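mind reviewing both lines:
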Amino acid sequence: MDVRSTKEGMTDILEKAFAELQCIWDKTGLSSADRVVRWSVLNKHVAQVCEDVLHNEREASDRLHQQVENFKQEIFLIAEELRLERPVLGMSSSNTILEQHKTLEQQLHSLTEMRSSRQQALQKLLRTQQELCELLGEAELCPATSAVPSEGELGELQQHVQLLQQLKAERRQVFMCLKRAILGCLVQLEQATQQQVNDDSDDDDEDLCLTEQHIATLKNKHSDLEFRASELLARWEDVTEKLRALWELLDQPLPQLQELLEQCSSYTPSTVAKLEVELSRLQELRLANMTMFVSRLKQQLEQAWDSCWLTQEQKSAVPGYTDEPETEQTLELLESQLALWKQYKKNHATLFHLVSEFERLFVELLRLEQRAKDPARLSNTRGGALLQEEKQRKKVTVELPRVEERLMSLYTDYEATHDGQAAPLLLGVTVQDYIDSKWDEHDAARLHDKNARKEKAKCVKSVKPSGAGNKAAAAQTPGPLKTAEGIVSNKRPACDDMQQQQQQQHRDTASKRLKLAQPRDAVAGAVAGA
């Protein structure tokens, strides 16, 4: 509805009202004077109504203008609190006051919500930070004094809270691990209460204390309990080892020992106490059978010494071995010596294993050489005996130099790998001298056999005719082995003093020795058997 139609409508209303008033006044018979008075009153009423309407509209317009100005001031104030640049109000001169009012009201509402959300986020972060700092014992990050934080301040506080939450997760994991480890040690030491066991499954955060001091206290407590548990384990192992040794030496029934160890498989104070009671019983039984026990200890010592390659002089020098009569002190000395030599054998297990392997192969080599001297074996060809013998000889020929090389390499590198400590002696001599003595004995025996064959050949030659004697001597007396370089001498090559050539020299020497260990009649017999 436009202004013109509005005016026309008001005119129609007034004209209709005036016409109706004329009719009423005509019917009532009002005089002209009364009618003038009443027309004057009506004019005043209409004029007052128009004045009131104008007054109200003026006040409404003024309020709109004032609200627009207030909106502008509040927008600038909130924008300053939010650390925003001076906002653009988004109005033009063509906008009416109502349009300006609506635009500014919307802009103010948006900024007010932004301020409120920041304040709420700040309060939430501050509460979370306070809870985390009280739990972790860390210092709080104090924001700026302004009531409304900036985006940067909120981001910094949010990052600090995230770091605290990450620290809480890490410390909580450490706390739970320490708690379970401490409980495990307490259970192992039989000091845990049922309440502690029940609390282990409760992961409630209410009773947590994740400060650095508390974590350090828990670590110290765990270290102390772990040390006590390790002591208990060492005590259990020591008692178990002594129990096994005494049980074996006293010839006690083995199933009973196995049953006892199964019952006491966990190293708790009660199981250790039970094992110690049984150990005390066996120790009393040991004292009651002193002579038998000492005899068995000496037998075990002999076995340990033989596996460590000791000489008789070294054995006799062991304290307690030759003491008479047997006393408890003698028993304790022998037990300590047995434990000492068992540990010595364990520390040099690799070396002694190689020496035993070398000894086994060397004995097998001597057996094959002795076997090769027996002419009767040429007639016994059942089951491929000669072929098997030749295979065994080839195997020894390959393995013996390899074992000797490993043994010499371990011997030469022993001081470097054991901080300058000298290598163990074998029968009172070094490993190199021991190997040299074995080969020297072997070479001396071969030389003796060779001289004996020569003497026998001379006797046969003096009895038989010259032609037959020469043929028999040529057939029965083998000469030195020939190689591509010529006749191989029985004399062992001299040892080079330079360490870098020692291993190669022993390898070549072992190969030559094994070639010398194959007599010509053994090769001929193997070919004939094939």
Summary: The mean pLDDT is 77. The CA atoms of residues 396 and 509 lie 15 Å apart. DSSP finds 18 helices and two strands in the chain. Residues 231-334 form one domain.
